Amino acid sequence: MANQTWVSPRGSKWAVKQAGNSRASKIFNNKADALEYGRNQAIKHGSELIGQKLNGQINLKNSYGHDSFPPKG
What we know:
- This protein is about 20% helix and about 35% strand.
- By secondary structure, it is of the alpha+beta class.
- A 5-stranded mixed beta sheet has the order 3-2-1-4-5, covered by helices on one side.
- β1 and β2 form a beta hairpin.
């Protein structure tokens, strides 16, 4: 999926960023607020929400785009 909304650690804060943009859409003090905002943005843009842990490892992937039906696999 080309459209992605990322929730990533940025120092001691959390950034929400659309893939392809050079700057974060918004910075939050805690991950829960960042995920809520990111989820709303992903739904609005029909994109995939990707969340990372503090170490940068991906721990969340949710698609809000146009998925194929039936799913492959």
